[in-house]
Design brief:
With 109 residues, this protein is mostly helical. It has one domain. 78% of the residues lie in helices and 0% in strands. The radius of gyration is 19 Å and the shape is elongated.
Length: 109
């Protein structure tokens, strides 16, 4: 049973014998790096980089569902990329909003 499932994965059109498997697998490195950046101070987060990560994730996750063969590895890595990009953008925006409020309060005092 397990042998037949492994054989099916090996021979799949988006399996390990193709670039359709390896490209998204290596793309996981970007998502992992973005997760690791969650400990980075918000002021060091780059808007252009996170917008690009989010847009790439959203665009390619859609594309991965319309191509033949459907590439679920590509879909999952791009969903994670979009989510981590949105998270980082949210952190940056919240930090800047709270910094602006603090500056306004100190200016009034």
């Amino acid at each position: 049973m397990a042998t037949s499932k492994l054989q099916a994965l090996w021979n799949h059109p988006a399996g390990p014998k193709t670039i359709h498997f390896w490209a998204p697998t290596f793309k996981w490195g970007i998502s992992i790096a973005n997760i690791a950046d969650a400990s980075k101070p918000p002021e060091k987060i780059s808007y252009p980089q996170q917008i690009a990560v989010t847009a790439t994730g959203l665009i390619w996750s859609r594309y991965s569902t319309v191509i033949t063969p459907k590439n679920w590895n590509l879909f999952s890595v791009n969903i994670v990329m979009a989510c981590t990009g949105i998270y980082q953008l949210t952190r940056k925006i919240q930090h800047e909003y709270s910094s602006d409020e603090k500056q306004a309060v100190t200016a009034k005092e």
